Amino acid sequence: MISRLKARATGQPDLSTAAASVADVAEPKPLTPEEAAAAKRAKRRKYARDAFRELLLVAALFLVYKFGRGLASSADSKAFDNAKEVLNIQNALRLPDESVVQHWWIQSEWLRSFANQYYAYVHFPVTVAFLIWLWVRHRDHYKWIRNLLAIMTGVALVIHILVPLAPPRMMPGFEDTGMADGTSPYSGAGAKIANQYAAMPSLHFGWAIVVAIGVMAVWCNRDPLRRAGSKLIWFHPAITLLVIVVTANHYWLDAFVATLLLAIAMVIVPFPDRSPHAKLVRIIPAPRVPVR
């Protein structure tokens, strides 16, 4: 009371009142059990709405991509002409002959089966599981990765429509290994909905690199076990590159174009607040400055 009277007389603020107001702000009243339960229900409803909205968005993007791929499914002659041109370019660049690599690999029935199984059953489930993991555990990285995939896949769709390309398995000198053992996603019902002439770019390889980049961005500065995992994940795109070649589903240039599209997408898409870009840059050693 005395401090209040002095404050009124001198025109100075009442420090005791100010301190009390700060204390009130710093220590909010605890929620009642009913209020806490209501807050939890509201949080769960918001989480469910966000998840449902994101699921609809990803499903819509996937359906648009599938529909677009079907637009170029009848360009047979152009697709084979483009395939011959790609083989000529690769030969001029002295890239390894895919047919030689394939024939060496499929001498082993186990290696043949492994490549077919990996191509047919690993690519899509791994990407979906990866996106779910980011959504649940690392939401700040999820939007960044989803946008990378969306841009890369959207541009790939335009290329599939404008530049139909027959895969190596349709060209002389190659074997369709998936068709031989019944694991090809382009046989049976898949032949009716899949675009057989959408070889370039290889989204199998492009999506595999996105998965590796995302895991590395999240784990590269964590505990030793996860740092090791951020390096081992690069076996996924490496194996994918080998698999798409030995199954004769893609050319080397298909993987190169997918990598180029991803690089462009990474320039366009802003990084999240935690900046995985900074994490990735820290892995690259700084250039040495010459001593003068």
Automatic annotation (TrEMBL):
Q: What is its main location?
A: membrane
Q: Which InterPro entries match?
A: Aur1/Ipt1 (IPR026841), IPC_Synthase-Related (IPR052185)
Q: Which residues cross the membrane?
A: 51-68, 118-136, 148-166, 202-220, 232-249, 255-272
Q: Tell me what topology the record assigns in the membrane.
A: Multi-pass membrane protein
Q: Where in the cell is it found?
A: Membrane
Keyword vocabulary terms for this entry: Membrane, Transmembrane, Transmembrane helix
Please state every residue range assigned to the domain named Inositolphosphotransferase Aur1/Ipt1: 85-267
CDD domains membership: PAP2_Aur1_like
PANTHER family on file: PA-PHOSPHATASE RELATED-FAMILY PROTEIN DDB_G0268928, PTHR31310
Instruction: Spell out the protein name for this chain.
Output: Phosphatase PAP2 family protein
Which species does the entry assign this protein to?
Streptodolium elevatio
